[in-house]
Amino acid sequence: MTAAIAAEGLRKRYGDVQAVDGVDLEVRSGEFFGVLGPNGAGKTTTLEILEGLRKPDEGSARVLGLSPWPRNSALLPRIGVQLQASAFFERLTAREQIVTFGSLYGVGAARADAMLARVGLADSAGTAAEKLSGGQAQRLAIACALVHDPELLFLDEPTTGLDPQARRNLWDLLREINAEGRTVVLTTHYLDEAEILCDRVAVMDHGRILKTDPPATLVRELDAPTRLTVESGRLTADRARELLDGSGTRADVADDGVTLTIATRTPAPVLALLAEQDALRGLEVRGATLEDVFLQLTGREYRA
């Protein structure tokens, strides 16, 4: 597959802060690509360089085969951008917002109605943007980014602050956009979101990309234990340890008074043991997730 984005050695400094520190990145055409990282990892700055909003101090980038900086008038109609903080024109309705954005690209007003239906806002066409709910405002921002039919879409944390239903609805829309052949680049703090939507993800911290691979590959490489949880009370932690030791099965056992958790790399004998003890009530089996990968690579300390 051809590269929609190819960046080498990108660096950007703000005073004493090295926001982006030697980023190499390739996003394939038609790919749904995620950029993950804690606060201050450099995700947004990297996207802003690729979007042509910021000049890198060092390095080079090609987006759809063109340089994004200086602001490239040949590239702008081919990309769509939904920024981390969306801003709309004051006192305009949802439809008027899309018409106005479309006019910047020479797109006719009829396209606005199609886009409103596409993002599920047809019934809110006459509602002022400031009166929309959080989920509706995010869908409007994506409609404005898509109104000129771009090949490549940048989305910077599009589901932050949304309720679970609004997030799921937005996921469906993003899947449809990507299925049409568009390349989508997404930054997000929601690891389940990246695991479900993205073909590949780059985990970023301190301005550097630490790892890039499909989510499933990253999870497999972690080689984390499987966690089996059951309802407390059926089997005590001490008795579980005794039985496990007797069977030669290596496992960590913990009981918080609500749930008995057994972490092991050999879950089959543990399941058999629990069944023999009639202790399968409330059973859940959980393998590693992208969140485990993320925490291993970036650490667990609090980030402001």
From TrEMBL:
**Which InterPro entries has this protein been placed in?**
AAA+_ATPase (IPR003593), ABC_transporter-like_ATP-bd (IPR003439), ABC_transporter-like_CS (IPR017871), ABC_transporter_ATP-binding (IPR050763), P-loop_NTPase (IPR027417)
Q: Localized where?
A: Cell membrane
Entry keyword set:
Antibiotic resistance, ATP-binding, Nucleotide-binding, Transport
Keyword rRNA-binding listed: no
MF GO annotations: ATP binding
Membrane association type = Peripheral membrane protein
- The ABC transporter domain extends over 5-231
Similarity section = Belongs to the ABC transporter superfamily.
Name it: ABC transporter ATP-binding protein
